[in-house]
Amino acid sequence: MGRDAGSWHSPPPQSRHHCKIKREDDISDEEEEEDSGARKKLRLTKEQSSLLEDKFKEHSTLNPKQKQALAKQLNLRPRQVEVWFQNRRARTKLKKTEVELEFLRRCCETLTEEKRRLQKELQDLEKSHKLSAPRHMQIPATCPSCKKVIGGAETGSPLPASWPRFFNPFAHHAA
């Protein structure tokens, strides 16, 4: 894949140096940029932007032939088209990440609120259980045949003499 003006090139493999060199036409472009001050940002026309967006919707990446043809059609350098596509992919990825982050933030808020609500409900239930425990004690009942008390504090114990007999509709009482 060829490089365009303004890009750095490595030395040929036989030299094995780790420095970078520039082509002569790169240096002359750089000198022109230094004369005019800071490097100018490329401003695309509405037509160029629209065509780039349309091509991006078709394919988010371009092969070298597509890049070359699009650059020629837009009167841009292939490297400019390549960089535009890289930037557009980065913006798309960033936007997707922001949308996912907002979704997760809302989920987290919902879950946090649900947790608070459940903790309060649990606290209320524990409080009402502690307050109502004495009122919900099991009432002892007497087995009519064996006279054992069923339920209450001492289950299965014989009925103490001091306890009154419980009403039994089937028992015959002498009045």
CA radius of gyration is 43 Å
Q: List the uncertain runs.
A: 1-34
Structural class: mainly alpha
| Main β-sheet description | 2 strands, antiparallel
The CATH architecture of the domain at 43-158 can be given as Orthogonal Bundle
Strand order, main sheet: write it out: 1-2
Task: Round the mean pLDDT to the nearest integer and report it.
Answer: 76
Helix content: 40-55%
Instruction: Give helix and strand order, one letter per element, not per position.
Output: HHHHEE
**How far apart are the first and last residues' alpha carbons, in Å?**
116 Å
Number of helices: 4
Beta-strand fraction estimate: under 5%
Q: Specify the overall morphology.
A: rod-shaped
Within the CATH hierarchy, at the fold level, what is the topology of the domain at 43-158? Arc Repressor Mutant, subunit A
- Can you count the beta strands? 2
* CATH level-four homologous superfamily name of the domain at 43-158: Homeodomain-like
CATH C-level label of the domain at 43-158:
Mainly Alpha
Oligomeric state of shown chains: single chain
GO molecular function, one term: sequence-specific DNA binding
Biased composition (Acidic residues): 26-35
Region (Disordered): 1-46
Main location: nucleus
Give the key terms:
175 residues, mainly alpha, Arc Repressor Mutant, subunit A, two-stranded antiparallel sheet, 4 helices, 2 strands, rod-shaped, disordered N terminus
Detailed description of the structure:
This protein has 175 residues and is mainly alpha-helical. It has a domain at 43-158: Orthogonal Bundle (Arc Repressor Mutant, subunit A), CATH 1.10.10.60. Helix content is 52%, strand content 2%. It has helices spanning 24-35, 46-58, 64-74, 78-132; strands at residues 141-142, 149-150. It has a two-stranded antiparallel ribbon. Strand 1 (141-142) and strand 2 (149-150) form a beta hairpin. Helix 3 crosses helix 4. The longest helix has 55 residues, at 78-132. The radius of gyration is 43 Å and the shape is rod-shaped. Residues 1-34 have low confidence and may be disordered.
